[in-house]
Amino acid sequence: MKHVEKYRPQYHLPPLGHTDWVTQDRLTEAPIWCSVDLRDGNQSLLTPMSLEEKLAYYAFLLEIGFKEIEVGFPAASETEYAFLRALIDQNLIPKDVTIQVLTQARPHIIEKTFAAIRGVKRVIVHLYNSTSHAQRQQVFRLSEEEIIAIAEEGARCFNAYAAEMPETQFTFQYSPESFTGTEPEFALRICNAVIDIWQPSEARPVIINLPATVENSMPHVYAQQISYMNRNLHSREHVVISLHPHNDRGTGVAAAELGLLAGADRVEGTLFGNGERTGNVDLITLALNLYTHGVDPGLDLVDMPHVVRVYEEATGLPVGPRHPYAGELVFAAFSGSHQDAIAKGLEYRKEKGEAHWTVPYLPLDPSDVNRAYETDVIRINSQSGKGGISYILEHRFGYHLPKELRQEVGYFIKDVSDRAHKELSPEEILEAFAAAYINVEAPITLRNIDWRREAGGTVAVVDLLVQGEPHQLTGRGNGSLDAGSQALRGAYPELEFKFNDYAQHAIEGESDARAAAYVNISDRDGRPFWGVGVHHDITTASTLALISAVNRLRKE
After folding, report:
1. How far apart are CA 226 and CA 261, in angstroms?
2. Total Cβ atoms within 10 A of residue 137
3. Is 57 in contact with 49 (CB distance < 8 Å)?
4. Distance (Å, whole) CA 257 – CA 286
5. 296-324 burial string, b = 16+ CB within 10 Å, else e?
6. What is the DSSP letter of 211?
7. How many CB atoms lie within 10 A of CB 193?
8. Is residue 305 within 8 Å of 295, Cβ to Cβ?
9. Which of 48, 252, 292, 366 could cross-link with 281 by S-S, CB 3.0 to 4.6 Å?
10. Which tens digit of pLDDT belongs to each residue from 338-363?
11. What single-letter DSSP state applies at residue 13?
């Protein structure tokens, strides 16, 4: 690409000695979650939500289980102000939920913000000002001391206005905006200056939010910056370190996870990563990453299709088909080898009563997020294999195909998909399978069959239509299937076939208790032909299976 020489890293490494967190292999507890969907997410939409839409989405966030929700920038617009007042005046904030509001470090905006929250029982008030080298140099053209003075003035305003509202329980939060583009030593100075003014305690902790306002480094760099702050912030025991990663490099989730390993306590983000530019960190992915490591994330994500549906309707934004854990195709396996491994893994789990989830290719049990194996995991197209197709027929429709038949039906269904040039639904798979194999009625159609026991075996009296002509034939054999086979040979004296294999079972899950029978025969050249019979009576089902196999042979 051209002009690569004009780019250079825009981040600053902290002093050495802040990498001990890398020895940890996983997170062992969930962070404090704060949804910023109604502020950061909402301001990124082409058409921001109306008051009614924000109220509905707020109720949705409560349903998921968020205990901290940033509800907006009340000094920014009438809608933001009206929404905040509706929450307070209509008593819509549960006792265990804390709302959060945002304000720049500008006295008149701070004043409007505190006026807007009057009457709320508990609130996080979030103060920020830009601190990065680029912002100081290009936007504000101010020195480090002048930038610190802005933050200090805002912090003192917070103290003054809070003192006038003793009925409200306040938590103060400060963000050095564009933290990742700020020299770590300067970020530490300005955060400690604010902490010293607010004087946190056990009863009234302070949140220091360290945003990757623009993600401009690899995730481990962000974590080193967090580790440096974690070790050097004043009153650390009474300070909550919060992360607010954006996703400009596509590594927001990784940055958040490493930041938590490096000592952070809290994460601000959005559902599915909605936010400006490439978005905020995706809290859905973060939470379910924890879940797959055996950590309860503390969010209710057990009905992912519902979460996706509400989100898409509210924001007008689609959840991509391969979005982690939530996309329509994220659990889908089209590859034959993958389907075979998944099907065998699921069978092993059932057979062994395995407590831990170890199914190949599936880091999460789809049923834990209300996704079905038959429709969401094993997806069938021309790339699929016999394992996936037989899994659908067995687990969705109750057909336990014999091993040799699985391979034949697998190739048959793949060819159907290839010719149609599309994915096949489970119903389409069953329809194609039934048309080709089950109770095949031409050229021979079974009208009725009676059996009777005689010395030395069984007699079958069979009423047939053979190419539309009625025939009544009698056959004798050592069992019902053998007797039926001998009768069929009478329909076509020239017909030569050898009986090879037979299997039967009840069709599971059917209220009318039908049985399935599978018969394999071969012609004079040794070519195998399978037929399947389905009937309430198993002996009739076996005869129908035999007739189906003969009919398939005759069609060749």
Report:
1. 9
2. 10
3. yes
4. 8
5. ebebebeebeebbebbeebbebebeeebb
6. E
7. 16
8. no
9. 252
10. 888 888 898 899 899 989 999 999 99
11. P
What's the predicted TM-score (pTM) here?
A: 0.84
Please give the Cα distance from 54 to 39 (Å, whole number): 10
Q: Which residues, 6 or more positions from 216, have their beta carbon under 8 angstroms from its beta carbon? A: 9, 10, 11, 180, 181, 248, 249
Beta strands across the sheet bearing 469-477: 444-454, 457-466, 469-477
Contacts for 394-403: CB closer than 8 Å, 24+ residues apart: 396/426, 396/430, 397/426, 397/430, 397/507, 398/507, 398/508, 398/509, 398/510, 398/516, 399/433, 399/507, 399/516, 399/532, 400/503, 400/505, 400/516, 401/518, 402/501, 402/503, 402/518, 402/520
Contacts of 180 (CB under 8 A, 6+ apart): 11, 132, 211, 212, 213, 214, 215, 216, 217, 221, 222, 225
Chain centre distance of CA 163: 45
Token digits of residue 322: 């391969």
**Is 10 within 8 Å of 222 (Cβ atoms)?**
no
Task: Report residues of the chain scoring pLDDT below 50.
Answer: none
Spatial distance between the Cα atoms of 364 and 350, rounded to a whole number of angstroms: 16
Return the half-sphere exposure (C-beta side, CA atoms, 13 A cut-off) of residue 447.
13
Residue 431 near residue 390 (C-beta atoms within 8 A):
no
Alpha-carbon distance 342 to 460, whole Å?
44
Task: Give the count of alpha carbons within 13 A of 167, CB side only.
Answer: 5
DSSP state of 366: G
Both tokens assigned to 62 = 């409560």
